Amino acid sequence: MSVRLLLATADDVDALVAMNGLVQDLHADLSPQIFRRDWDRADHICVTTAWRGRGIGSRLLAAADDFAREMGASSVLLDVWHENIVGRKAFERTGFTPLNLLMSRRSGLS
């Protein structure tokens, strides 16, 4: 099956928000002490489970690289949660490497 990447339009907003919900729900499952299910409409990259393993995520990241270059950026940074093993492996396969370690603990613990 052939897949084409197209620029999103206003008609795609509902589908994009729904896909963002998949990412937000994953975060809530992995770190419920930080994330809630009543999520905001922030930007994320997500490939639905049924479409994973077909190179779509790699193509989306390549498109982000192209956009960054056009904007004059010399690098692309991303944020992935430590518990998101599938996402981390996918990003590593496309050349991303760890840059910074953000740590947390529940308040009141010592």
SSE blueprint and pairings:
Elements: H1 13-30, H2 56-70, H3 85-93
Kindly name the structural category: mainly alpha
DSSP strand count = 0
Largest sheet: none
Please tally the helical runs, counting DSSP H or I stretches of 4 or more residues.
Answer: 3
What low-confidence regions span 5 or more consecutive residues with pLDDT below 50?
A: none
Count of domain modules: 1
End-to-end span in angstroms?
Answer: 54 Å
Task: Estimate what percentage of residues fall within beta strands.
Answer: under 5%
User: Could you report the average pLDDT, rounded to the nearest whole number?
Assistant: 84
| Rg, nearest Å | 16 Å
Instruction: State the share of residues found in helices, binned by percent.
Output: 25-40%
Order of helices and strands: HHH
Overall geometry comes to globular
Describe the structure in your own words.
There is one protein chain. This protein has helices at residues 13-30, 56-70, 85-93. The protein is globular, with a radius of gyration of 16 Å. The chain is 38% helix and 0% strand. The protein is built from three helices and no strands. The chain is mainly α and 110 residues long. It has one domain (10-93).
